[in-house]
## 1
Amino acid sequence: MTIVPEGVFHWFLTLVTGGFAGLWVIHDLVFLIRLAGADRRDPLVADKWFGYVLGMVMGLIGVLGALRFNGVLAG
């Protein structure tokens, strides 16, 4: 006996994973845009820039994984 049907669980995982990852990309993109005018030679600015770009890469991996999980992207 299952609690929810497989399709519901499938879409729940997609929305949670892909949604969270997509929001993470947008969040880091906004902070990266705010950081655009700062001096990149400053170590604190460079560290923030690196962190935001890495966060966006991880978010994109999550979004692409959710799309592949649903068969939108062939793999």
## 2
Amino acid sequence: MTWFRSFFDEDNVWQYFEVGDDGWAKRQVDLRADDAQALTAATLDEVLHLRDHADLAAMQRYERQFGVLAEASLDGWRDDPRAEEITQTEFEEVWTAARSALSGSG
């Protein structure tokens, strides 16, 4: 696994990713840069479970609550000057806070 963050200028958002060896996002957190409000805290495992075991309405509820996971390979992230590798611990701290906020328990 690799963990990195990147700043998305157009939306003023920090994006944090946990990426598998295949280059695809396993987990993603988006935080609004101005106030660090969590916008996304989505995980591939949950998305795949919903795809395989639930209906469209359940997937839509998930996306409204936790946002949408990146749907493209992130292989080229090292070429982005706004991206930087972070530690697993740094990612976990951001993930835990964002997930708690979006779950309504934060």
## 3
Amino acid sequence: MRLLFIGVAFLFTTSAAAQSRWTLSAGPEWSPYGGNRFIGGRVRGEYDLIRPTKPFRLRMEFGGYWEPSQTYSASYLDGSSVGGWKQSMDLTFGLSGAITPFPRGRVSPYVTVGVLARQSWKNGSIFFLPAGSGTSSVHALSGTAGDIVFPVGLGFRARIAGRMFQAEMRRFQGEHTTALMIGTGLPF
């Protein structure tokens, strides 16, 4: 009988405390460019390498970004103008760490920093019309590049009805793009 009570107690305590190590997040990402804002969507999958019940979390993550074709233009005080269109996408893979003061709380704020390898593709064109000139120069912007990005952010995790949800605002240093990601723990 004692073994039965211990088994039932173990079942209830582990199911309530157990959290999935997998998280799937998605949301908008935007960046200022020439006075305009470019908006696209980012999706990200994360796997916690350290149990999510610890104050420090280490995650392996992979994700991608896509933005539709968008135009931009800007005028300067001297009468010259610039404009064009662009479209971009990327794939990222890397590690991120997070520190939280309340790892087991219902609501757990955290600070995150990471290092990601990124492969990006861009397509578009740009024109420049100097002041007082009737001719403009047009340049095609197309190519691919690989680089390393360092995202930093703030977020919080909340347990609602036995499920984990997270919201995170992340800024990619160097490019000044910002993403707002909403996610949930996967059931496996």
## 4
Amino acid sequence: MPQLLSPSAAKVQQALRALGLANQVIERAQSTRSAAEAAAALGCAVGQIAKSIVFRAKGSGRAILVVASGPNRVNEQAIEALIGEKLGKADAEYVRDRTGYVIGGVPPLGHASRLETFIDQDLTRFPEIWAAAGTPNAVFKLTPAELLRMTGGRVVSIA
């Protein structure tokens, strides 16, 4: 019998199916909110965690998604150079409004609005990676090629 998913995790599962992808969303008892928590829960390297970080472009107000490898910090100046404007922090309300998900559970796809997306080149070193799936306890396994396909993002150095 298939696992019953929470509404947000089910929305991610539907987005995967709509793209013709067979990836399976799973919800875990323990939190996967941080990259370290997710890696411990999944038994993988922290670098295999694809964390979705939403920024707000200061001039235009557009949402920018950076999908970063777990241990990496985003060099905001590097992203600013790519988008041609300064980045600002995105508060919880902004993130939920633009993505449809809460911070800690933002997936790389299925957002409420189109997000310009940048993918950390370090994620491409792994044959499989894990991403959030709509809640702080939901994840799904994917490949870097699937991440590129589902986001239409650009692979860049975020350092």
